[in-house]
Amino acid sequence: VKDRLGDPDQLRSVEETKVLLTQKITDRLKDFVSDVDTRHDAAMHPLTQDKLSMRQGHRKERKTLKAKQAERWHVEDSARQARLRRGVGGLWDRMTGRTKSVMTKNEREAWSAHKRDQQQREDLIVEQLRERQALQRSIAALRTKHIRDRRILAREINQTLKAQARDPHSYEMSRHHDHDRARYQGPSFDL
Prior knowledge:
Shape: rod-shaped
Low-confidence stretches: 171-191
Largest sheet: none
Helix content: over 70%
């Protein structure tokens, strides 16, 4: 026995061995959790990038629409104001009532233009919401999968800790046995 195990004074005590095994198990479990976190982050990264680019694209579309509508409003408003004559002709139009009819027509056109622009903004927002909701569904599905993965991992960690608490030596032996089995796959028949 002394030849196999070495000098008894050099061996760890049972308590030291338990602490060492517990630390090894804890470190291994932390590695598993870290691996899962890394995989989850890597899986979420493309969707996060899509979300950011979508947000920037939507902002740009809204800003472009706002600028084009402001420019069109300015052009249309100038055209409406040009219908009102100035000077003596404008004074004559006021006395004959033509100015009032032109102003009423201008107000109706301005209101129609306002409603048209408002509808365009609402249509753009609805379209962008549809796009965003499709992406949000993908993100939610991935998050649900990640939650499921974490629950499975937590269950496995819990089972491992319970098994280790019952018999730390057999756990260590089975872990080495599983590792050896995973390493040797049998002869390769590849050509």
